[in-house]
Amino acid sequence: MKHIHFIGICGVAMSALATAFHKQGYKVTGSDKGFYPPVSDHLKNTGIPYYPGWHVEKMTEDGDPDLVIVGNVASSDNPEWMYVQIKGIRYLSYPEALSEFFIKDTSIVVSGTYGKTSTSALLSWTLQKLGADPSYMFGGLVDTLDSAYIGKSNLSVMEGDEYKSARWDEKAKFFHYKPTHLVLTALEWDHADIYKTEQAYFEAFEQLITLLPEEGSLVYNADDPNVERLSKNFSGVKVSYGSKNADYTYTNLQAEKSGLTFSIVHKNFTQKISLPLLGEYMAPNITACFALCNRQGFEPESITHAIQNFPGIKRRLEKRYVGDITIIDDIAHSPAKARNTLQTLRNICNGKIFAVFEPNTGNRQVESINSYTNAFGEADEVIIPKLTKIKIDKTASAPPMNEKKLTEVISHSHNNVICIDNDQLLIDHLFSKAEKDDTIVFLGSHGFRGMIEELIKKYD
């Protein structure tokens, strides 16, 4: 097999997978409906050829590809996807490709509603620095570390996403990853477009736990009641982490604009952790990583040294501008994630917080309305921008929420929510309203069409 083509290469995860194959010596090409920084810059710098739109003649310029990785962007009438099926070209979904090429006998899977990207990235970074050379994949961007990599050891680390695997495969991605060790970070109903009820959502994670072998282990967040409840379903080795009464406990937490400091206590040792990352939410993620690495036999001092050099993940409380005001970019695309991010900012910010929020597809569904209650309480003003167009499921009970409906829903529990569906007017509004020591945070997964960059220009 020589040539791998990606239909939908511009996603963070798909581009990471493409890069990993490229570095293994495969010829890699890709297509997508559009290309935006930082992923487009990354593909260009890596030397992977790509093109906008769906063009069979470009995909087959040097003959049919040997394998096609098909992203969820490929609809039933996508000409490249149709050609692949008609010609009988071998194809895999993104999680199927990970299962075939990345998963090792010792398979660490990090899963949960939130915290899984940060934890899997940190775990991949730490194990690499410790010399374990794992194969890994996480859905974020970290300076000096590829987001996907095929290592030489018998160890792998996977971010276990609960979203559906492919258009032809409704089951969660994490069911493909054959976990021997599972990290469970947090559980709160999400992705209402896939999981119509809270029970259905939790049942997917219950099934994931059943995949663990008896000799495997479950590393779980004891502070989360839903995680704590599900952990009781596993009869094998269980390792808890949290802020109190856990096998690995983090204490003396200090979160400031300059960074994070705390200690990890386990049996007969205490390790002090200090690193320049924003967000109290990173303390449990770091503790989970520490616990897993320690369980794999690495010494506490070596783990601590590796963790403290972690540069952080782009779009996770990423400071895009710091001056009289601060501009933050965060991928929080659900009410639960937005609430956690805003609570973190409230603890370290002195001025007002302006939150620009765009939910993902699942959190535009009417089934998710109740999850918005009090989610934005820590923001002084919530702004709903023009929402990115999404495909509408004709079988859904109701159409997805538009800008005005979303504004109305959030207004039920917040007294200052406005809709500005013109990008330039939104930028002008923020520039005129934000004052010294205020924070502007963009929350969402779609990139905001360059609004962050345009706003920064006004302050430069």
Structural write-up:
- The chain has helices at 12-23, 39-46, 56-59, 79-87, 94-101, 116-129, 198-210, 225-231, 282-295, 300-307, 335-348, 403-411, 423-433, 451-459; strands spanning 3-7, 27-32, 50-52, 67-70, 91-93, 106-111, 135-137, 148-149, 155-160, 164-166, 169-172, 181-184, 217-221, 237-242, 248-256, 259-266, 269-275, 318-322, 326-330, 353-358, 381-384, 417-419, 439-444.
- It has 460 residues and is α/β, with parallel strands linked by helices.
- The protein has 3 domains: 3-92, 3-Layer(aba) Sandwich (Rossmann fold); 102-307, Mur-like, catalytic domain (UDP-N-acetylmuramoyl-L-alanine:D-glutamate ligase, 3-Layer(aba) Sandwich); 318-459, Mur ligase, C-terminal domain (Protein-Tyrosine Phosphatase, Chain A, Alpha-Beta Complex), CATH 3.90.190.20.
- The strands form 4 sheets. Strands 8-7-9-6-12-13-14-15-16-17 form a 10-stranded mixed beta sheet, with helices on both faces.
- Helix 6 (116-129) packs across helix 9 (282-295), helix 9 (282-295) packs antiparallel against helix 10 and helix 13 packs parallel to helix 14.
- The protein is globular and about 60 Å long.
- The termini are far apart.
